[in-house]
Each structure stands twice: as C-alpha cells, then as structure tokens.
Amino acid sequence: MATTCKITKLLKGNEYLFRVRAVNKYGEGENLESEPITAMDPFTIPSPPTDVEVTSATNEAMTICWKRPASDGGCRISGYITEKREKHGIRWVRVNKKPVYDLRVKASGLQKGCEYEFRVFAENAAGLSEPSLPCPLTLAEDPKFLPSPPAKPTIVDSTRSSITLSWNKPLFDGGAAITGYKVEFRKSTEEDWAVGVYNTEKTTFTVTGLTSGAEYIFIVRSINKIGISEPSPETNPEKALQGAYLYCISQTVCICSRNRQTCLFATLLLLLLCCPQTSRWKSELATFIPAPHVKVTPICGEKVTGGCFFLKLNV
Predict the structure, then answer these.
(1) How far is CA 190 from CA 88, 153, 194, 212, 237, in A?
(2) Which domain, by its residues, includes 115?
(3) Among the four 18, 119, 180, 187, which has the fewest Cβ within 10 Å?
(4) What is the pTM of this model?
C-alpha cells in the first residue's frame, strides 16, 4: 500500500495544510496534520549570464556572445533573451523575440555610425534571470585591417651623405585612411634595420647622415589607425654618392681695339653641369639633354670625393 500521494491543481504562492489518517475495518484513526507549506516551484530563476561581448561588427549588424550562468536555479536553462541600447538611449530593446538556445545571437538592422551595448537574460521554468552586465559600447562600422605595403620605392637622388627615395600609395588602405609612412634602411653588409622616419605623410623622404660610398637598402611601410603594414619590397643597393650640380659662372670683361679708341664691355655667362661619371644627368628640377651642338667630355674618369678643379675653355 502506497504511503505517498501527489496533490495537483494547487495555486502557486498559496499556503496549504495537509493531514493524513489511517483506515482499517474498524474505522478511521486520528488525523496527522502537516505544518503550513507554500505551493511553489522547487527551483529558482537562474543567475545572469557572464562575459557578454561583441565578437564581430559591420555597418548594420553585430554578433554577441556570452557564457552560461554560474547557476541554473536547479532547473535546465531553456533559452536566452538579448537586449540592445544605443549610446544615448534610455530604453532597452529586445534583439530576439523568441529565446535562443545557443550562446550567441546576431543583432541586425543597426544604424551605421551608432554605438550599441548589449545585455543578456537566462531563462528556465522559474522565469527570467536578472540581466547580465552590459558589454562595452561597440561602433556599428565595417571592420578595419592593416594596409598593404607600398610598391618598391624608387631612388630619385643621392649625395655623399643622403639618399632621397619616393614611393606610391598602397593599393589597399585596410578600410581606414593612410595616416603616414615609416621608412627603414640598412647597409647592404648589415642585417639590422634603422628607422629613417617613424611617420611621414609625404611619399618622398630624404635619409641623411649616411656614409659616403656605402651601399644602402630601403623599405617603406604604410600606416593607418589599425597599425603598420608589412614592409615594401627592398630597393636595389644604392651608394651614397655626390649627385649632379649646375654651376653658373659670370664674368664681365673689357674688349678694346688695338688703338684703344673703341672699348666693348661684355658679360660672359657659363653654365657648367658637373656630376660623377656614374651619375645621372638630372636634378630635381629638370632632366638635362645636351643640345646637338653641345659636346659632353668626361674630365676625369676616376672616382673623386673632393678637391679643387680648374676648367680651361678655348673660345
């Protein structure tokens, strides 16, 4: 004979008394009465989820993830509810109308350029938990990446102690504006790179303080707000040598006739372009192409690093 009984259709929250008495062929015994007891679930609401974070974001959507609550309240978690709020908003708005059973949800239909925060509730048979701590504000924008490096830099000029190089902008800016370029260099006989400039907005730069006659290799990196790109292809080794210079020599002379009765004053102007034999005939202002009647004569076929030179002209 059973000694337990399940009583149904009670009202949750009401207090009840129960009594039991034994019965045999001679009749009923005395009642045994229970203490007052409230009809309620044998479990509670769960604790809130933890570690809510946005794992990806675009202009119009974000993915929110979280961890399970520390306590399920004694009953299996049946789902999660997520809410969102704009940075300057007051009301929390539901992201998912029905509970989700996964530990992530995608919030769509967001406003580009707005910042959002999210919180999550856990639910079991007893009801919804308290809300989780909201995640940090996240901006609705397309993701940004590191930029691609510039193309191989070009050497445009050199002196005994400096080399000037230029480069083109990278093909891909990473989704964010290029804020500058980092120039690095090393001697061809060394492995360690030195920094010529940490951040220049221009696409040309002159590296100074070089050793005359030494060969140098250069690379350039692009910079945006995310960080610094991979290095560009290395330049060919370039020596720090004196470039071309244009000299202007002006002299006023007096030319007299034999009887000195007639005198003529004239100003002779000599333009002299000098450069090492291995250098290019150009400057930053122009490229020099000798006219057909101009004869180019190498004065010295050996490498020189300084000294005084005299030029004799036969006219």
Answers:
(1) 56, 20, 11, 16, 12
(2) 50-139
(3) 18
(4) 0.49
